[in-house]
Specification:
The structure is a single chain. By secondary structure, the protein is an alpha/beta fold. It has 14 helices and 15 strands. α7 runs parallel beside α11. The chain starts with a strand and ends with a strand.
Length: 501
């Protein structure tokens, strides 16, 4: 059987709005059907946010402290073998629709090389349709089809709002919206899919902001549940970083036509943005429906592993924040559905897998599907055993994620970071506790059972000192256990190099 993979990666989809979990807020029938013939992972975590570091962990199988792509503009070191490189070595073509938010290693290259003008698609992919950093390819296509759109993607949304349109409505014409443009390329590929093995990475930009949607999708979704009143002083007291984010994260992160900080948005605007976000989930589902129908028409559905995932999460107005810059799990916990067409997946078909899984598991999973051994660099493990109903006794019991916030520092922040290299946190989260460790600031401890909204930092309470110490030790153990081992299993010997690398 010539195995294939359809990998659908969306941008900024929250974990608690995962398809397949009976979400009453938005109907996602296509993805629910995918979940019914696959497995829904209920505790899946990205390794970081924003896009660049999250996607780098997916592609490399490594934690951020190993691959060191801690922000979108940060390059990936040359020589690190990513998903597309492993596939090409095995004779499998990796096709790309969308983007990966990647920057190549600048060493030995002209700093003015066009590849450095904006992160987009990593080297090694065969690009079918690229969503470039400024979305110029999409807007040029839509304008060529007669759409009255500004050539500048974000400016078009801002002009639309400032011309008097409701904040939640999109200027994009129905049928010429960017999700349709990307899905069309996937449908065209699947209608003529090659017989040899392939992996198609289909990346949707949505539900990433601007949080504005088409009228028919807005009509499909109810108003989002109102948020509880936000106590600004209590939110700022959680941690200096929480206060910093509330001060510097702009409202334009949700919609480019909005001014001021996100934490100061009026309640009516927050409600409209939250509804638009739900409508964008419906928009993606509509296009996924078309793509999955094309897969079935192609006759390749029985030999194609289908993966649906998000790169990272979204705050959705909680804590006075939009976007993914936050200390809360909504930025890092994300949906994952894997539909394995083989009969061996029957034990979990249509079920939910509650084991803690991470983006670092995706590279070994996809390589495993193609019969390729995972390289020593991988920090994760294949998920195919979990899908077959076989959970190893030593499976992880906590998730690990990191965030670098040096770009948000507006100057020295008392009690937070004295230098850019200290402007980061590393977190460990199990079923009960979320512990965030800062190199130059006090830690954070949330009790997820008593405080699922993560509003009270317990780290300074003496009653929880044993928990802090236990989580800190687990975090240190994890860092030691997963130090980069890309070449650590290779050895120079009298007869030449031996081992694995």
């Amino acid at each position: 059987m010539a195995r294939n993979v359809l990998l659908i990666m969306v941008d900024q989809w929250r974990w608690d709005l995962s398809p397949g979990l009976g979400n009453p807020l938005v109907a996602t029938p296509a993805l629910d059907r995918l979940a019914a013939r696959g497995a829904v992972f209920t505790r899946h975590f990205a390794q970081s946010a924003p896009c660049g570091p999250a996607r780098a962990s997916f592609a490399s199988g490594q934690y951020v402290f190993n691959h060191r792509v801690f922000a979108n503009p940060v390059p990936m070191a040359a020589g690190r073998r990513l998903l597309q490189h492993h596939l090409r070595t095995a004779g499998i073509t990796p096709y790309m629709i969308g983007y990966t938010t990647a920057v190549p290693d600048p060493r030995g290259r002209d700093p003015q090389d066009p590849v450095f003008h904006g992160p987009s698609v990593a080297e090694g992919w065969q690009i079918l349709r690229e969503m470039d950093e400024d979305k110029a390819r999409y807007t040029a296509w839509a304008r060529g089809q007669g759409a009255d759109l500004d050539p500048d993607y974000d400016a078009g949304f801002a002009h639309h709002l400032r011309a008097g349109a409701p904040v939640e409505t999109s200027p994009q014409p129905d049928g010429l919206h960017d999700s349709r443009w990307l899905a069309d390329a996937a449908v065209a590929f699947l209608d003529t899919a090659p017989e040899r093995p392939w992996l198609l990475h289909l990346g949707f930009y949505r539900p990433h902001p601007p949080l504005a949607a088409l009228a028919r999708h807005l009509a499909r979704v109810p108003d989002a549940p109102p948020l509880p009143p936000i106590d600004a002083a209590a939110e700022d007291a959680i941690h200096p970083l929480a206060a910093l984010f509330r001060r510097v994260v702009p409202a334009s992160i949700a919609h480019p036509g909005l001014d001021g900080p996100a934490s100061a948005l009026p309640a009516a605007t927050v409600a409209a943005l939250r509804k638009a976000y739900l409508a964008l989930l419906a928009e993606v589902d509509d296009e996924v429906d078309r793509v999955l129908a094309a897969l079935e028409r192609s006759g390749r559905g029985q030999d194609t592993l289908v993966v649906f995932m998000s790169d990272h999460g979204e705050q959705w107005g909680e804590h006075g924040l939009f976007g993914k810059r936050a200390i809360h799990q909504a930025s890092f916990r994300v949906p994952l559905i894997i539909a394995d067409p083989r009969p061996s997946a029957d034990p979990t078909r249509g079920g939910r897998i509650h084991a803690i899984t991470e983006h670092v598991d995706l590279l070994p999973t996809l390589l495993d599907w193609f019969g390729i051994a995972a390289p020593p660099q991988c920090d994760g493990r294949s998920l195919l055993g979990l899908i077959a109903g076989d959970r190893p006794s030593d499976w992880r019991d906590a998730a690990f994620y990191e965030h670098d916030f040096r770009d948000k520092l507006t100057g020295p922040v008392p009690g937070l970071a004295r230098s850019p290299h200290e402007a980061q946190f590393t977190a460990i989260q199990d079923e009960r506790w979320a512990y965030l460790h800062f190199p130059d600031a006090d830690p954070v401890l949330f009790d997820l059972e008593a405080d699922p909204g993560q509003t009270r930092n317990l780290a300074a309470d003496p009653a929880f000192t044993p928990v802090v110490h236990r989580m800190m030790r687990r975090l240190l153990d994890h860092r030691i256990r997963h130090a980069d081992r890309t070449l650590s299993e290779a050895r120079a010997a009298p007869g030449g190099m031996i081992g694995r690398w």
